[in-house]
Amino acid sequence: MSDNNLEDLFAHNRAWSAQMERDRPGFFTSLVKQQTPRYMWIGCSDSRVPANQITGLEPGEVFVHRNVANIVVHSDLNALSAIQFAVEHLKVEHIMVVGHYGCAGVKAALSGKRIGLADNWIRHIQDVRDRHSVMIESLPEEVRVDALCELNVAEQVVNVAVSTVMVDAWARGQKVQIHGWTFGVHDGLLQDLGLSVDGAKPLDTAYKAAVQRIRYKWSKPAGAALASPSAQAGADGTEGTAK
Ligand SMILES: [Zn+2]
User: What end-to-end distance do the CA atoms of the chain give, in Å?
Assistant: First the structure.
């Protein structure tokens, strides 16, 4: 059974390659020469959140790093190496940290449910949960996972911003912005959390403002169309969708 499925993947790949070459003769030849992406995407490994398809970007246009629950840990050489390569060599202009609603990693972190080795990874989100425990516990239970998903994004934006890679890049005068976004698996839409940092404005102020917006957004009275992202997408008072 699996053999057939894997054959399908190769067949689809050959068809895709041929179609691309028909539509855009020389496409792959030009890709070989260089990649010049303007964007770096740091997202969740979740199979429902594919960076290129969501943003309509083609091969060569977005540099991607994904892990469980889009976490950037201060000492994670994998993530930091990817960020360094993207910033110093590819000269990306925008780094977006993209969380998604209904993230299994965030859910596990919130509930404290044990899922295995990943518990140690998820622990980073539990730190976020604990940091904002008063706010989270004040929210209706059904929106807490989505609120924590957004808080996690805000936290990871800060983690990227304080990395030596970004501190050095901004000290050199390199123009790179970091953005916090979320993705709705239920509607396929990106939302901008309004937290964009560029090394010029105070990071702490931007972070605190974002956290306040998240608190305000999710603490609206029940019945104000907030029960879930599927109910409130686009009507939540954030600064519009990003793309
Ligand atoms: Zn996820």
Answer: 39
Helix (H) or strand (E) holding 97: strand 94-100
Of 218, 206, 229, 242, which is closest to residue 54 (Cα–Cα)?
Answer: 242
Give residue 19 CA to ligand 1 midpoint distance, Å.
32
Domains, the chain, ordered by start: 1-33 (no CATH), 37-232 (3.40.1050.10)
Measured in Å, residue 233 CA sits from the centre of ligand 1 at: 18
Question: Would you say the pTM of this structure is higher than 0.85?
Answer: yes
> Above pLDDT 90, what percent of the chain?
84
CB-count burial class (<10 Å; 0-12, 13-18, 19+) for 14: exposed
Q: Sign of dihedral through CA atoms 130, 132, 136, 137?
A: positive
